[in-house]
Specification:
Blueprint: H1 4-8, E1 30-31, E2 41-43, H2 44-49, H3 52-68, E3 71-75, H4 81-95, H5 99-103, E4 114-118, E5 132-138, H6 153-178, H7 185-189, E6 197-204, E7 216-219, E8 225-230, E9 236-240, E10 243-246, E11 254-258, H8 260-265, E12 275-277, E13 285-292, E14 299-300, E15 318-319, H9 320-328, H10 336-339
Parallel strand pairs: 1-10, 2-3
Antiparallel strand pairs: 3-11, 4-5, 5-6, 6-13, 7-12, 8-11, 8-13, 9-10, 9-12, 14-15
GO molecular function: L-ascorbic acid binding; metal ion binding; oxidoreductase activity
Keywords: Iron, Metal-binding, Oxidoreductase, Vitamin C
Protein name: Fe2OG dioxygenase domain-containing protein
Length: 345
Amino acid sequence: MTTCKKLAESPGLTSIPSLYTYNTNPKDEAISEDPEDPIPVIDLSLLTSGTPHQQSQAIQELGKACKDWGFFLLINHGVPERQMEAVIEGIRGFFDLTEEEKREFEGKNFLDPIRCGTSFNTSLDNVFFWRDVLKILLNPDHEFQFPYKPAGFREVSMDYCKRIREVARELLKAISMSLGLEPCYIEKATNLESGLQLFVANLYPPCPQPELAMGLPPHSDHGLLTLLMENGIGGLQTQHNGNWVNVNAIPNSFLVNIADQLEILSNGKYKSNVHRAVVNSKATRISLGIGNGPSLETMIRPAPELESKEQAAAYIGMKYKDYMELQQSNQLDGKSCLDRVRAFN
């Protein structure tokens, strides 16, 4: 399978192969942010070390962001900017390896610890997406498995993932409280101590016809929370009130979206966020999403405390492992995976 990077570097490439032509509905075009309703910004330092009043207010703002957007920008998160930059450079170095070197990390099964490839699922995709990807499953109960090339990439990424796990834990405590639950409710209900992390490094090379291609189609993520950073080249768009909104990241911030398991656990109070990646003709975009999920064997169902006569359980319970397989073995299509576990009465 030819990678997008190799294709983009083909001499004299002026158009994309028909396999990459993605038909976008004209009504589906992106709009810029509405200044009347800006993307929420959450300050983690206020959640973790603010005064009681600041903390209470920040929890309310976080709950509103989860309810209204399912998405927010996270600042003052404590992860050093130099470390974020080092991981991005490691990703760049990985994708700069030869095609033969990268093939060593190809992987076949969705539970393989390391998989490298292109598009989303080339065995299923009717249209290929303009994206190369490195996916790594990180299980804290197992040894840290990671590509050994380029030099230093493994070490800087290991420390980075540990830091992200702590940031996610603090956010999930605050989200628990915003739902009226005990601070450690989500952590215990999802067995977060053994929770799976998914390291997804994306490379979107310049595309000669960006209006015809798509980096990733509209979809929601399968875990609890995804924390994403990018190399300063925009391309993420999030859906809000039926419109597409361009996300312009604040320097040294994370783009955080609510994922499907959190929608299930909150009994639909917080909706997982639908987003997509668009491409451009001028610069290579690199992004890194760290998905933070439950442990693979944990059954995720709505919190009983959030059920009532008026709001019965809106989703059936399912093991996280089975839910992941459901998403990974189908085409990406909005929230079609979540629709399969809705409890229709």
